[in-house]
Amino acid sequence: MRKRKAVERGRKISTATISLALSFVVTAAAQSERINQEGRILGPVPVVTTPTLFNTPQADAIVSAMQIFPVTNSWNEDISRRPLLANSAAMISQLKSDLSSTRQTLRLFYEMNYVLVPDNQTRVTIPFLDYPDESDLDGGTFPNGSYPIPSNMPIETWPRGTGTLTLQQWQMDVTNIGGDRHGIIVAPGVGAIWETWQMKLITNDWQASNGAKFDLNSNALRPGGWTSGDAAGLPMFPALVRYDECERGAVEHAVRLCVPKTRREYIYPANHYASTIAATSTQYPAMGQRFRLNKSFVVPTNWTIEEKAVCYALKKYGAIVADNSGGFFSISVCPDDRFSSTAFNNLSSIDVSNFEVIQTTGPAEGPRSPGASTVNAGADQSVG
Question: pTM for this one?
Answer without folding.
Answer: 0.89
